[in-house]
């Protein structure tokens, strides 16, 4: 019996090739989209899950309150982790991980390594990163011990065994000894570095004087603890206030910086933590993409249901005959569900092919290797297979129910009508499809608008033609700046500790506020030179810029932004001039106020920022170059660099590109969103195309009669199109408020955002109408141009 | 074999109710060949559908093979139908997607006959109907007469006790029509009960008895043999 079903199913598919193609392609595209998203979501969810002790590892994070403000960070003070390990028996081990970007050299091979970690010795005990060589207990114990990933080992040592060999690290060229080689860290790890070295390098040697293991006010490393089995994290967290009070209560009161410690389950850090830190994912994006996947699969299934029920008229005769010769309703239902499963399985095969083809592009778009290839994960294939079977059954259920319920006498006698029940269902399904599609179009437009807005927003500083060189605080950087300044094609140079979009340090500060008190706050801090403000075209609102004419400027002067004086209670920038400050061992007064500029991405609001001259604390050389011949200018800058700083790699970037890099994840999100929106619309249109074909087929006789009576071609196209346009219009009415709400929520993540304009809806609605119109009128036109005699005769 | 008593059937649209069968009663004995005649709309086809267990009456009773089937549900009717009744239609009603062989085989599939047995039986019937050479063709590739022979083959494959024929020659030319009538006669000779709805006096004469209907009622009955 099954052979018979399969046979007839395949023959049916073949006989209605066009229809089958629409059905299968629609489903296959839907499944492919669903599959890609499944891979993406699974990959994101797999972050950090490979650690065997993941359930016992926690990250310690801090909220810090000063009298002026509060902020939360993914870090904890240097002293927290080692002290926890000492004082709490349930804490088995603690690991601090400090992200360092440093110069690494071996003979002529030199690289600026941007992600190296300085870690405590328990690192390889707590985490499951595999050492190929070296003893996990001791590899990163003594100062200047370094562990390389296989890739890094190859980079510096080729095929030689690196163990026991040395590398020069940092500008100073400290000699570090390779004590271990580890497997490359997996991509789905939020802790990810190519080079790891001992944190004792800092605590016992480089920063020995700072006594970092007992420093309660310095925040550099991220801290992780491994606790005993049976440790209740909430109870542990509840003990933290006492712990802080005991160890640093006096210090906190003295500096008026009050810290609260929290613990975050390690396995949730990547997706759920809102504190950032090393690479972070977004559970919201996971939800958004999952919903889109469900939507797309829904649209594809709806197509399937619609096309199959619309076609039921054609199958009615077969149903009648089968019933007459003895088929029972259930047998027929099984047959039709079976057919729909067959279609889904074909779609499944097509989608495997499509996914294989698209995966490289998708990986590229997602910015990571979500999956090296679908066949590398049989589990995923199995899931998709299961998914397609489910779609086959679910989507086949209704049509098979409809078909198997046909009364044989009706269909065989030919006085069979489709009835209005199915029509209503089909219409509501089309509305659902277009609601989703229109909502996705609206979403896409708004995302792109927001991206555009962020890119083109007046940032308050000039980012054009600025070349940033990473000098890493070498002593000769001023010589270098001077030399480069004299090169042809170079307009000006400046030195600083930070540039917009590149992050900055912050400092415990005390500044005189409007009431005259010294107000404590944690403020953003840029170390700049005399030319920095003009280099970036920052606008002075009051006072003056730094000047070499005032000798005290290099030690006692501070320039602040508008946000800072707002925080201090001043209404007029001029009032703030002369206010006293204490910061990082310096005392002096405010000499100028600059207009706020966006030194972070537009997702974040502008924060208070202070600027001071601090020679020897610069690590970036900002070069303004002439737009013409910039390639030649860069080449001559490099030459100069090589002659003055031969030991350091020439590392440069353009500020505008660097600043826009902050929007890369939004851009990726936007591109992915757009791609899936296009897919959704495409599948909806395929469905509409099929439905239009059948609806014109059904109305063939009506069209014939109308034509005989004298209807024009355009009249008939209108007649046929208007029905579908009505549905699209209803979908538009439903989609607009839903999309508005969702996108309004999405925009809340941005400190600077667009207002959602009415034309977005108009554009989305009219493009949906146009797309639908083109799709439908193809068939409408064909029907209206056909000879009426033909259609009347066939009835 | 068949006893119908005061059989009633109505069709209702929103505003009009049409009586298709109006307290119709008659008996048909096993082995009979009965022709039912009457103008369009007199209820012949409705009657045939009820007799074929494709439709249920709104009133009266229907006894088939000594079993009261008036209130049988669809499943029971389907079960009874597939073992006991064969149908032949004016428009042949073959499944276009199936070959001649597969069309004839279909009833055997639904009665659960094993594949090897099916092949044997289908081949025998196709041989008998002289369409063996067409066994792998699709219905559209056959002439009307050939299609109706396939339909007859399909109707008899399960060796039903009753064959219901709804204007079996309506779409055929006279020579093909006669051929089909000849086949029905042969089947009847072998003991199959046949009830045939027809417009053709010529065809009706192949039967033993003609029941003439008008407005859902039996008006006359001629016994021919």
Describe the structure in your own words.
The complex is a heterodimer of chains A (795) and B (225). Chain A is α+β, with helices and mostly antiparallel strands. Chain A has 3 domains: 2-43 and 282-454 and 666-792, no CATH class; 76-230, no CATH class; 466-661, no CATH class. Chain A has 27 helices and 22 strands. Chain A has a 6-stranded mixed beta barrel with strand order 3-4-9-6-8-7. In chain A, strands 14-15-20-17-19-18 form a 6-stranded mixed beta barrel. In chain A, strands 13-21-12-22 form a 4-stranded antiparallel sheet. In chain A, helix 10 packs antiparallel against helix 15 (420-456). Chain B has 225 residues and is an alpha/beta fold. Chain B has a single domain (2-223), classed as P-loop containing nucleotide triphosphate hydrolases (Rossmann fold, 3-Layer(aba) Sandwich), CATH 3.40.50.300. Chain B has a 6-stranded mixed sheet with strand order 6-7-8-3-9-10, with helices on both faces. Chain B has a 4-stranded antiparallel sheet with strand order 2-1-4-5, covered by helices on one side. The radius of gyration of chain B is 17 Å and the shape is globular. The model of chain B has no long low-confidence stretch (mean pLDDT 89). The chains are: A alpha+beta (795), B alpha/beta (225). The interface between A and B is medium-sized, with 25 and 30 residues. Chain B: Keywords: ATP-binding, Nucleotide-binding, Translocase, Transport. Chain B: Belongs to the ABC transporter superfamily.
């Amino acid at each position: 019996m099954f052979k018979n079903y399969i046979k007839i199913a395949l023959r049916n598919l073949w006989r209605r090739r066009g229809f089958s193609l629409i059905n299968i392609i629609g489903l296959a595209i839907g499944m492919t989209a669903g599959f890609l998203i499944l891979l993406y979501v699974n990959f994101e969810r797999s972050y950090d899950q490979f650690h065997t002790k993941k359930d016992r590892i926690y990250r310690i994070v801090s909220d810090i309150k000063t009298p002026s403000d509060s902020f939360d960070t993914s870090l904890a003070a240097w002293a927290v982790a080692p002290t926890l390990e000492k004082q709490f028996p349930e804490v088995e081990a603690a690991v601090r991980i400090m992200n360092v970007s440093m110069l690494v050299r071996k003979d002529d091979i030199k690289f600026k390594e941007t992600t190296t970690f300085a870690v405590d010795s328990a690192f390889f005990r707590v985490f499951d990163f595999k050492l190929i060589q070296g003893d996990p207990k001791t590899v990163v114990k003594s100062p200047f011990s370094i562990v390389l990933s296989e890739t890094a080992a190859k980079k510096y040592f080729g095929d030689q065994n690196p163990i026991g060999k040395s590398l020069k690290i940092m500008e100073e060229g400290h000699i570090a000894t390779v004590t271990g080689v580890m497997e490359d860290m997996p991509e789905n790890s939020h802790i990810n570095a190519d080079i790891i070295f001992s944190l004792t390098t800092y605590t016992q040697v480089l920063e020995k004087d700072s006594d970092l293991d007992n420093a309660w006010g310095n925040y550099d490393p991220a801290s992780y603890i491994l606790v005993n089995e049976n440790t209740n994290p909430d109870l542990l967290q509840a003990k933290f206030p006492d712990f802080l009070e005991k160890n640093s209560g006096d210090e906190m009161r003295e500096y008026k910086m009050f810290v609260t410690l929290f613990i975050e389950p390690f396995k949730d850090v990547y997706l759920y933590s809102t504190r950032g830190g090393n690479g972070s994912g977004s559970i919201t994006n996971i939800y958004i993409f999952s919903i889109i996947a469900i939507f797309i699969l829904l649209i594809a299934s709806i197509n399937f249901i619609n096309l199959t029920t619309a076609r039921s008229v054609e199958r009615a005769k077969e149903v009648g005959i089968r019933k007459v010769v003895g088929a029972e309703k259930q047998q027929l239902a099984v047959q039709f569900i079976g057919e729909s499963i067959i279609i889904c399985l074909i779609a499944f095969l097509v989608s495997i092919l499509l996914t294989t083809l698209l995966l490289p592009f998708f990986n590229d778009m997602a910015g990571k290797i979500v999956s090296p290839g679908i066949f590398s994960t049989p589990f995923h294939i199995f899931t998709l297979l299961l998914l397609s079977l489910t779609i086959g059954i679910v989507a086949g259920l209704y049509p098979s129910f409809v078909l198997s319920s046909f009364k044989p006498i009706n269909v065989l006698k030919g006085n069979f009508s489709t009835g209005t029940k199915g029509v209503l269902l089909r219409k509501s399904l089309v509305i659902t499809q277009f609601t989703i599609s229109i909502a996705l179009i609206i979403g896409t437009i708004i995302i792109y608008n927001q991206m555009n807005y962020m890119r083109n927003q007046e940032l308050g500083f000039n980012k054009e033609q600025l070349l940033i060189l990473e000098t890493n605080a070498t002593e000769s950087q001023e010589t270098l700046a001077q030399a480069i300044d004299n090169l042809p094609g170079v307009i000006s140079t400046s030195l600083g500790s930070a540039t917009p979009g590149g992050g900055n340090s912050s400092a415990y500060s005390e500044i005189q506020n409007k009431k005259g008190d010294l107000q404590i706050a944690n403020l953003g801090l840029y170390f700049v030179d005399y030319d920095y403000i003009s280099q970036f075209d920052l606008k002075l609102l009051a006072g003056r810029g730094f000047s070499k004419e005032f000798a005290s400027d290099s030690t006692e002067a501070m320039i602040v932004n508008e946000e800072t004086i707002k925080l201090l209670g001043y209404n007029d920038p001029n009032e703030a001039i002369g206010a006293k400050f204490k910061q990082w061992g310096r005392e002096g007064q405010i000499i100028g106020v600059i207009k706020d500029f966006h030194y972070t991405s537009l997702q974040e609001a502008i924060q208070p920022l202070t600027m001071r001259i601090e020679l020897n604390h610069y690590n970036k050389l900002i070069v303004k170059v002439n737009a013409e011949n910039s390639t030649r200018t860069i080449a001559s800058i490099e030459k100069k660099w090589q002659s003055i700083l031969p030991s350091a790699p020439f590392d440069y970037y353009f500020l505008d590109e660097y600043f826009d890099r902050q929007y890369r994840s939004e851009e990726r999100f936007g591109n992915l969103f757009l791609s899936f929106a296009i897919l959704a619309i495409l599948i909806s249109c395929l469905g509409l195309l099929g439905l239009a074909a059948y609806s014109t087929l059904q109305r063939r006789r009506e069209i014939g009669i109308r034509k005989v009576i004298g209807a024009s071609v355009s009249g008939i196209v209108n007649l046929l199109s208007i029905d579908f346009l009505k549905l699209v219009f209803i979908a538009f009415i439903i989609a607009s408020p839903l999309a508005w709400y969702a996108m309004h929520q999405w925009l809340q993540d941005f400190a600077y955002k667009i207002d959602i304009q009415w034309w977005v809806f108009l554009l989305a609605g009219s493009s949906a109408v146009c797309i639908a119109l083109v799709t439908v009128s193809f068939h409408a036109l064909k029907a209206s141009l056909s000879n009426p005699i033909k259609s009347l005769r066939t009835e | 074999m068949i006893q119908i008593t005061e059989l009633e059937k109505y069709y209702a649209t929103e505003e009009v109710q049409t009586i298709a069968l109006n307290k119709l009663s008659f008996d048909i004995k096993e082995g009979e060949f009965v022709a039912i005649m009457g103008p369009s709309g007199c209820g012949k086809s409705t009657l045939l559908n009820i007799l074929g267990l494709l439709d249920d009456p709104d009133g009266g009773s229907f006894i088939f093979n000594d079993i009261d089937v008036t209130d049988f549900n669809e499943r029971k009717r389907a079960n009874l139908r597939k073992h006991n009744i064969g149908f032949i239609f004016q428009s042949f009603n073959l499944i276009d997607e199936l070959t001649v062989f597969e069309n004839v085989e279909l009833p055997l599939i639904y009665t659960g006959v094993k594949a090897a047995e099916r092949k044997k039986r289908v081949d025998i019937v196709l041989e008998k109907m002289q369409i063996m050479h067409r066994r792998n063709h699709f219905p559209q590739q056959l002439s009307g007469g050939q299609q109706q022979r396939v339909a007859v083959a399909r109707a008899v494959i399960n060796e039903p006790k009753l064959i219901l024929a709804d204007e079996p020659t309506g779409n055929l030319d006279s020579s093909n029509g006669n051929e089909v009538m000849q086949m029905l006669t042969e089947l009847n000779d072998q003991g199959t009960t046949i009830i045939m709805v027809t417009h053709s006096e010529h065809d009706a004469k192949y039967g033993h008895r003609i029941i003439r209907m008008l407005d859902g009622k039996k008006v006359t009955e001629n016994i021919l043999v």
